[in-house]
Specification:
This protein is an alpha/beta fold. 31% of the residues lie in helices and 13% in strands. The protein contains 11 helices and 13 strands. Strands 1-7-6-2-3 form a 5-stranded parallel sheet. It has a 4-stranded parallel sheet with strand order 9-8-12-13. Strand 4 and strand 5 form a beta hairpin. The longest helix is centred in the middle third of the chain and has 16 residues.
Length: 307
């Protein structure tokens, strides 16, 4: 069913976001549709719909969204940037901070990220945006588990009203300890710290690669934790802590201190980072957003192919 009557109140709520010291609405990395529905209209809440326009050109936000949500498509809004030939990197701090503020987010705002929830690869947009908020020092962020699909399947209200946010006042407080760059990866290789390759097995062993990566193979010492293992296909939601703990054990990851996740462009790796750091609660997990696309730009950097 569709309800547009909430729109006026919700827009007013967005305008007031950040105007006062707000109480944190949740400290959980994932929330369900019932919880989000119970929070609609609160002035310290900003819901960000990151669904991309599919190949058929259908505009998902215009067709229906969570009431009060603002649109910031994952691929089009500028959540990631190409820097020095490497795609998918964290944008310059001043650029991404301005984009976040333009969505109505202030320092005290509770952010809820809503992906489509169609599959785990698509859900990676939400985990990457979540990581972006975290690495910028904004803890008040969570993801709608199961995405918009879970919201609609639960029979929650759907709006077609376009929400134009009032700009917030967002100040980044960067946390470099959540991000790995080339130097940290090189140190991890030397110290035999577990690097987590979140790509498919075929890409990990060097049988396949994407066009953004210059050579086949993986980073030396890496362990493969396929991104799709972090998704409960039957429930259409993110994997549980228990299943992630079992996954880590099965992969033979014995030293979980200071893990670094990577993939091709830092997208799928954010799924693994989110699962290991936020859901399983492992300490010191970092995301190498440059991943194999950046790593292989320099042919002198080592790459391992498994026969």
């Amino acid at each position: 069913m569709r309800f547009n009557v909430l729109a006026t109140a919700l827009v007013l709520g967005l305008a007031a976001a950040g105007s006062a010291q707000a109480e944190r609405l949740t400290d959980q990395p994932l929330v369900d549709a019932a919880w989000l529905n119970s929070q609609l209209g609160k002035p310290d809440l900003v819901i960000i719909d990151i669904r991309d326009t599919p190949k058929d050109g259908t505009a998902p936000y215009a067709a229906g969204h969570v009431p009060g949500a603002v649109e910031a498509q994952y691929a089009a809004y500028g959540w990631r940037a190409k820097i020095d030939g490497a795609p998918g990197l964290l944008p310059k701090i001043e650029d991404i901070s301005a984009k976040i503020a333009a969505l109505g987010v202030s320092d005290d705002t509770q952010v809820v990220i809503v992906p489509a929830g169609s599959d785990v690869a698509e859900f990676g947009g939400a985990t990457r945006v979540y990581w972006t908020f975290k690495v910028l020092g904004h803890d008040n962020v969570t993801v709608l588990d199961g995405g918009y699909k879970a919201w609609a399947d639960a029979g929650q209200a759907i709006s077609t009203d376009v929400v134009t946010p009032v700009a917030g006042s967002f100040t980044a407080k960067p946390r470099p300890e959540l991000r790995a760059e080339v130097a940290e990866v090189e140190e991890a290789i030397a110290s035999d710290t577990n690097l987590i390759d979140a790509r498919s097995v075929a890409q990990f062993i060097g049988k396949e690669k994407t066009n953004t990566v210059q050579s086949l193979g993986s980073i030396p010492t890496a362990v493969n934790l396929n991104f799709d293992k972090f998704w409960d296909k039957d429930a259409g939601k993110f994997a549980s802590k228990a299943s992630i703990d079992a996954l880590v054990q099965q992969a033979g990851v014995t030293d979980t201190d200071g893990l670094i996740t990577f993939c091709n462009t830092g997208h799928l790796a954010s799924i693994a980072w989110f699962g290991l750091s936020e859901v399983a609660g492992l300490k010191g997990v970092r995301l190498y957003d440059g991943s194999m696309s950046q790593w292989t730009l320099d042919p002198a950097r080592p790459v391992v192919v498994q026969n």
